[in-house]
């Protein structure tokens, strides 16, 4: 009787697990097919320097243009891509495309730089540095026009992170700490990490009141005290822009300025913005 119970319990637990694994394998196969068929696209969200109003660069954000389902958000597939290792070829595609398209934009907008999001697996891979050098060389984008976004969870082993970051920085690219404030980085080690910019997570930027009012200006000062630039993410309102300017935040990114744009719409935005800057 006991054995029979154990067996049925085993079956009870096994079934949903098998299905989850099968789904993951199916998604992996779909991601590989999507890459081969050229179904991924990059959208770009402009980053604005707050004191001058100029566009300093843009963040490359991937979307999956699925033949039946339409544009799919990275939230729906990046995690599976990371778990299956598909993130490696996908992000290689992202970096190559971002470098190619930014290289084109430099003809008209010579100061732009492009930010790409890294994944933990990639960050720790020794061969990544070589791949990056190859991609920069292949696309002809000067390294200081490429910014790599990392997250706090990638720097939890601080000594190791310093070594990896120094190696990356020796190429000439810049480093931004993405979603700052939501991770687990030890503040005492922040000064030791060779980063160029803090990107404050939008949870500290939106609905500035109460606790947030105490935290946002403190993060901006913290960034400036350790000698890095500070960018506010998820800026949606005029009030938020005014507040950030008042607190001397360097840059901002968010729906107030522009949502992530297709490459064609980005070009239009850049020309329009440039024109407005010249005539007002
Ligand atoms: P993230 O790097 O923090 O990117 C910012 C996300 O906030 C983007 O979502 C963007 O569309 C959204 N956002 C921008 N402005 C606003 C705003 O004013 N309000 C609100 N509510 N949201 C705003 P998206 O494009 O869906 O990307 C989600 C996440 O997926 C990214 O978060 C990043 O972690 C990841 N991701 C995107 N592209 C890539 C990629 O090429 N490689 C890797 N490894 N991860 C990527
Ligand atoms: Mg990012
Ligand atoms: Mg972010
Ligand atoms: Mg964020």
List keywords for this structure.
single chain; 280 residues; alpha/beta; eight-stranded mixed β-barrel; 9 helices; binds ligand C2E
What does this structure look like?
The chain is an alpha/beta fold and 280 residues long. The protein is built from nine helices and nine strands. An eight-stranded mixed beta barrel has the order 1-2-4-5-6-7-8-9, surrounded by four helices. One magnesium ion binds at residues 179, 201-202, 233.
Quick recap:
The chain is 47% helix and 19% strand. It is of the alpha/beta class and 280 residues long.
Describe the SSE topology.
Elements: H1 2-36, E1 40-49, E2 55-66, E3 70-72, H2 78-84, H3 87-105, E4 113-117, H4 120-124, H5 127-139, E5 146-151, H6 158-169, E6 174-180, E7 197-200, H7 211-225, E8 229-232, H8 238-246, E9 251-252, H9 263-279
Parallel strand pairs: 2-4, 4-5, 5-6, 6-7, 7-8, 8-9
Antiparallel strand pairs: 1-2, 1-9, 2-3
Residues 178-179, 199, 233 line the site of one magnesium ion.
Protein name: Diguanylate cyclase/phosphodiesterase with PAS/PAC sensor(S)
Domain EAL: 24-274
Largest β-sheet summary: 8 strands, mixed, barrel
| Amino-to-carboxy terminus distance | 84 Å
What is the number of E strands?
Answer: 9
What ligands does this structure carry? Answer: ligand C2E, magnesium ion
Number of helices: 9
Mean pLDDT: 91
Oligomer: single chain
Strand order of the largest sheet: 1-2-4-5-6-7-8-9
- Provide the low-confidence segments as ranges: none
What percentage of amino acids are in beta strands? Answer: 15-25%
């Amino acid at each position: 009787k006991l054995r029979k119970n154990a067996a049925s319990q085993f079956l009870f637990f096994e079934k949903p697990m098998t299905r989850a694994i099968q789904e993951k394998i199916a998604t992996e196969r779909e991601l590989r097919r999507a890459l081969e068929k050229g179904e991924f696209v990059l959208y770009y969200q402009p980053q604005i320097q707050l004191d001058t109003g100029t566009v300093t660069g843009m963040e490359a954000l991937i979307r999956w243009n699925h033949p039946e389902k339409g544009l799919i958000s990275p939230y729906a597939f990046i995690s599976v891509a990371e778990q299956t290792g598909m993130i490696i070829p996908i992000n290689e595609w992202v970096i190559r495309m971002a470098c190619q398209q930014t290289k084109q934009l430099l003809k008209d907008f010579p100061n732009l730089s492009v930010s790409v999001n890294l994944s933990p697996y990639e960050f720790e891979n020794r061969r990544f540095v070589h791949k990056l050098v190859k991609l920069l060389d292949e696309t002809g984008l000067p390294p200081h026009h490429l910014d790599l976004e990392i997250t706090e969870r990638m720097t939890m082993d601080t000594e190791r992170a310093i070594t990896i970051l120094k190696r990356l920085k020796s190429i000439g690219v810049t480093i931004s700490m993405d979603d700052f404030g939501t991770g687990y980085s030890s503040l005492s080690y922040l000064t030791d990490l060779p980063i160029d910019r803090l990107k404050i997570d939008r949870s500290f930027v939106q609905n500035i009141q109460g606790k947030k009012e105490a935290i946002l200006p403190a993060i901006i000062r913290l960034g400036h005290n350790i000698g890095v630039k500070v960018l506010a993410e998820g800026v949606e309102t005029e009030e938020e822009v005014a507040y950030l300017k008042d607190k001397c935040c360097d840059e901002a990114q968010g729906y107030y300025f522009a949502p992530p744009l297709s490459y064609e719409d980005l070009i239009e935005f850049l020309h329009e913005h440039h024109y407005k800057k010249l005539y007002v």
